[in-house]
Specification:
There is one protein chain. This protein is mainly beta. It has two domains: 103 residues, Alpha-Beta Horseshoe (Leucine-rich repeat, LRR (right-handed beta-alpha superhelix)); 103 residues, Sandwich (Immunoglobulin-like), CATH 2.60.40. The chain contains one helix and 18 strands. Strand 17 and strand 18 form a beta hairpin. The protein is elongated and about 85 Å long. This is Ig-like domain-containing protein. Keywords: Disulfide bond, Glycoprotein, Immunoglobulin domain, Leucine-rich repeat, Repeat, Signal. InterPro entries: Cys-rich_flank_reg_C (IPR000483), Ig-like_dom (IPR007110), Ig-like_dom_sf (IPR036179), Ig-like_fold (IPR013783), Ig_I-set (IPR013098), Ig_sub (IPR003599), Ig_sub2 (IPR003598), Leu-rich_rpt (IPR001611).
Length: 264
């Protein structure tokens, strides 16, 4: 078995890869595992397959691939993941794609957001890359559902704005003192934050009453995206300043909002 170069495990009802069984297949170049009910590829599944050049997992049920799964295969040039249930591929998998010349991704459930942008950029950077007739299709978000990757620019692979809801959204201050409302939002691209008082947007006309400080802060445990912190200062609060305030965060992928209540 040491000299075996081609192994076909197609249609064997495998629910997982028999990783330890590959231990002595040091010369294996082509592995076909099509048509098996495999849902997960783990970090040790290819531990002994450093010589693999072609890997085929078409028409399985793969939903998740661990970031380091393909790392042992530094000769991999063809990877077929078509007809599975993949929504994302972790950006760390990129390290295993350096030698790829053939990559099949069509007929999956791709969520075309910022977490998948790295892959779209990687494919675009390959000279003469062409999806042909089997381009991957976006399953979500709704605004990209059914759209072919070849018709979606990398910057459209975006993540909607989200707001980190504070522990307390009701603030009480003494008449004549200053009040502070803080809003932290994340998105990719970075969201634009706007404040509203009683459904009216606060702009430069309110500078003598309100002051807004804004700036980017550290990323919130993500490999992509930016966080923006916007702080609304209500100066010398009056009774008329009491009521509802809204923080609205918005980017090209969507928007979110949080309501605050000021008591004076």
């Amino acid at each position: 078995m040491d000299n075996l170069q081609i192994l076909d495990l197609e249609s064997n009802l495998l629910s997982s890869l028999p990783g330890p069984a590959f231990k002595h297949l040091k010369s294996l170049r082509i592995l076909t595992v099509n048509n098996n009910p495999i849902t997960h590829l783990g970090k040790n599944d290819f531990k002994y397959l450093s010589s693999i050049e072609t890997l085929k997992f078409e028409n399985c049920q793969i939903k998740n691939i661990e970031p380091s799964s393909f790392r042992p295969m530094n000769r991999l040039y063809e990877l077929n993941l078509a007809n599975n249930q993949l929504r994302h591929l972790h950006y760390q998998i990129k390290k295993s794609f350096s030698r790829l010349t053939v990559l099949r991704l069509y007929n999956n459930q791709w969520k075309c957001d910022c977490h998948l942008r790295w892959l779209r950029i990687s494919l675009q950077s390959i000279p003469n890359w062409d999806f042909g007739s089997n381009s991957p299709i976006c399953e979500s978000p709704n605004n990209l559902r059914g759209v072919s990757w070849k018709n979606v620019a990398p910057d459209k692979f975006a993540c909607s704005s989200t707001i980190q809801v504070p522990s307390a959204t009701s603030v009480e201050v003494v008449l004549g003192s200053n009040a502070t409302l803080k809003c932290t939002a994340w998105g990719d691209p970075a969201p634009i934050v706007t404040w509203f008082m009683k459904n009216e947007q606060l702009n430069e006309n309110y500078n003598n009453v309100f002051d807004v400080n804004e700036g980017e802060i550290d990323e919130l445990n993500s490999e992509t995206g930016s966080s923006v912190e916007s702080v609304l200062h209500v100066l010398s609060a009056k009774k008329s300043d009491a009521g509802s305030y809204m923080c609205l965060a918005e980017n090209l992928a969507g928007k979110s909002e949080v309501m605050y209540n000021l008591l004076v």
